[in-house]
Amino acid sequence: MICFQEDNWKEIAGKKMKFPPSLIGAIYDGNLAKLYKLLQTSDGLLRQLDDSEDRSWREALNLAIRMGNEEIIVNLLRLVKFDFRQIHEALLVAVDMNLINVVKLLLERLDQQKGVSHNKVDIMSFSLALFDHSIDSSRFAPGVTPLTLACQKNLFEIVDLLMKKGHVIPNPHKISCSCPECLNARQYDMLKFSLSRINTYKGLASRPYLSIANEDAMLSAFKLSRELKQLSKKEPEFKVGDSTLNPTELTGWTRQ
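Structure for Transient receptor ion channel domain-containing protein, as requested:
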């Protein structure tokens, strides 16, 4: 487990860490000594990252995760002040690869970064994933969260871990909802908004979420099945097209 010191979170005004191009090679080679040389500052304090290099920093952390080198990941997290959005995408990568130890490291980092003294995280912050245009859209669907992704991939252990950390899948609002969040999402990108609703329902309809989040999984499955049937009459995209939103599949597995 990483031991983060409170002093390590101090910022130095006006100083930002520039992305060293050779960092990618050091991560790819697993060269820890070179990584230290590139990232360590003389005073040991973390620097804010240059916003114009956001994608480069994301790719560095994501590559370390895909390479599966936990020592490199630990030291990247120790030496670089990644922001919430960058950690969020890294969580998606770790979940996608079913790397539970890396998921734990990233969740710990979120707790430290947000100054959380208990085991919960700011759940609503994950709705910002829909508006993060820098996220790798070729790999991850719009608005997907670590929990909905873990649910869709049937990763029971990671789903359980995330839920113990306070992550939930809120029920989507009605398509006609006029609350600020829904209005902003529709105006931002109607297609992404629609796809995010579908992905949310896929998470709600998954075996891990139904069994872990509900005392009566069968009853919850039947209620959700009925809701999806009603939605399919008003929103064509909810017509049964795959088993993850198929009411028959949804209720059938609970009888097994």
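DSSP finds 13 helices and two strands in the chain.
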